[in-house]
Design brief:
This protein is α+β, with helices and mostly antiparallel strands. The chain contains 13 helices and 14 strands. A six-stranded mixed sheet has the order 2-1-5-3-4-13, sandwiched between helices. A four-stranded antiparallel sheet has the order 6-7-8-9, with helices on one face. Helix 7 packs across helix 12 (248-260), helix 8 packs across helix 11 (216-241) and helix 8 (168-183) runs antiparallel to helix 12 (248-260). The longest helix has 26 residues, at 216-241. 38% of the residues are buried.
Length: 472
């Protein structure tokens, strides 16, 4: 779920007001027309539903699967989401979409920072997209081309919108595969050049790459050279990709397989803010907008502006808690606790994420941790607290295993130039140790210490937020 980090709506406000997935007719017991939207440019699914006011997500999803001819082996790959530019929520099987649409404005006031005017004009739609709780290991076994196409369109949209930050070797390969899937793998150079001129680079490369960064003057001066270089790079990669004359399904598998290398593939996304590191008296109190991706494996905090990972943690590497506002003007906070180092000393670090969606994030983390435990259920089980939605991968913190166990010090971080790697040094965190030796006068209360945990069967404890914490 993400309030402001997702791709913008491709329709004008007037058009969007006519696209509501749920009809607002008073005669809800009669058959009603419902439109279920798919991701990307795929055609929506029209349905005729009896008893719209009480129909459940489980019933609607069954009808969508039948209409799309989703095989039984992949029926858990997708879920129904209630989405708008302001909020995205994956629905539970027992939810009733019509009732949730009637409560949409209340949900926006509760989980977003949107203005009253924006909330009054916002309208959700029902969307059929990837299930957050569907494991990548199962996705690798999918052979049905219709299912692969649905997964591809969603992954491609997340790449192009920079929701999935990726390195140049990733986005060039993915752009070449997308070009081959759109236009075929056997185009000659003149035809390829004509295609890129017509469709533009933004159809194949992330927006931050296709449009570049910097001021207007620098953009105007270097745009032509930059565009030509990107086109040349994309065409070279296209020739390499298509040298084996791959067919459609193989190309789809390659695209999704490349996306699987991104640790946040398949995540639900949330919006929030974190404190900026203090760089002077005038810059204290400033915050940075972040996108928080939560997958079955871990939590990933990403810089919305810079399009890179600030912190990536597996669930075995963190503790968390959610605190409610205590006074008027306070914010909901998701606390993430993890191992760190300060001046050569092993310390615990706390990161504060300010967000009205902290409650949703905490609930999703808890459910994913339960799924990953030995006694946990299957990934298709219904979450206890709901999921928002808006995810061989390298480890979020390092590519190699730690030199020591859970209580020891981690190895040096590697590949710091990669957008996928954590940038802990760019975070404003609270640091402390658990033996009474305070760092920066900080010693919050906590339920358990990382340094006292055993390496086998890790336990998960929430951080108890103490009074008087100061930001380091």
């Amino acid at each position: 779920m993400e309030a402001d980090g997702g791709p913008p709506s491709s329709e004008a406000p007037d058009d969007r007001s006519q696209r509501g997935s749920v009809a607002s007719s008073a005669a809800l017991t009669r058959a009603q027309d419902v439109v279920i939207y798919l991701v990307g440019d795929l055609a929506p699914v029209p349905l005729t539903v009896e008893g719209l006011g009480v129909v459940s997500v489980q019933e609607l999803a069954r009808d969508v699967r039948q209409a799309l001819r989703i095989p039984e082996t992949a029926q858990d790959a997708f879920a129904l989401w209630l989405c708008s530019p302001l909020l995205e929520l994956q629905l539970k099987p027992r939810h009733q979409p019509y009732k949730l649409c009637r409560q949409w404005q209340d949900l926006l006031y509760r989980f977003t920072e949107a203005s009253a005017e924006d909330i009054s004009q916002d309208e959700p739609c029902l969307q059929y997209r990837r299930n957050v709780f569907y494991p990548k290991s199962k996705e690798l076994l999918v052979e049905d081309q219709g299912v692969l196409r649905l997964l591809y369109e969603e992954a491609r949209g997340n790449i192009l919108s920079d929701r999935y930050p990726c390195d140049p070797d990733h986005w060039t390969g993915l752009g070449a595969l997308a070009l081959a899937l759109d236009e075929g793998p056997h185009l000659d150079a003149p035809t390829l050049a004509a295609v890129l001129k017509e469709k533009k680079l933004a159809s194949f490369l992330p927006a931050s790459v296709a449009f570049g960064a910097g001021g207007l003057l620098s953009t105007l001066r270097g745009r032509g050279r930059r565009q030509a270089a990107l086109e040349h790079q994309l065409l070279d990669e296209y020739r390499k990709t298509c040298s084996g004359a791959s067919d459609g399904p193989s190309l789809l598998h390659q695209y999704l397989g490349t996306c699987h290398a991104l640790p946040y593939y398949g995540s639900a996304f949330f919006s929030g803010e974190i404190d900026r590191p203090a760089q002077g008296l005038l810059q204290r109190g400033r915050r940075k907008a972040v996108s928080v991706g939560i997958s079955l494996d871990g939590v990933y905090v990403m810089d919305v502006k810079e399009k890179h990972v600030l912190l990536g943690l597996l669930f075995s590497q963190l503790s968390w808690d959610h605190s409610y506002p205590e006074e008027e003007g306070d914010a909901h906070v998701l606390w993430l606790e993890f191992d760190g180092e300060e001046d050569g000393t092993a310390v615990n670090k706390l990161l504060k994420i300010y967000s009205k969606q902290a409650e949703l994030m905490s609930g999703l983390i808890e459910f994913c941790v339960e799924l990953s435990s030995p006694s946990g259920g299957v990934a298709s089980a219904e979450p206890q607290d709901g999921a928002g939605g808006e995810e061989a991968a390298p480890r979020p913190e390092e590519e190699e295993e730690p030199e020591k166990g859970r209580g020891g010090r981690r190895g040096r971080l590697s590949r710091q130039d990669s957008v996928v790697c954590s940038r802990v040094q760019n975070l404003s965190t609270i640091s402390y140790v658990d033996n009474g030796k305070e760092i920066k006068r900080l010693k919050p209360r906590r339920a358990a210490s990382f340094f006292s945990r055993q390496n086998t069967a890790p336990a998960y404890a929430t951080v108890q937020v103490g009074d008087g914490l100061e930001q380091g």
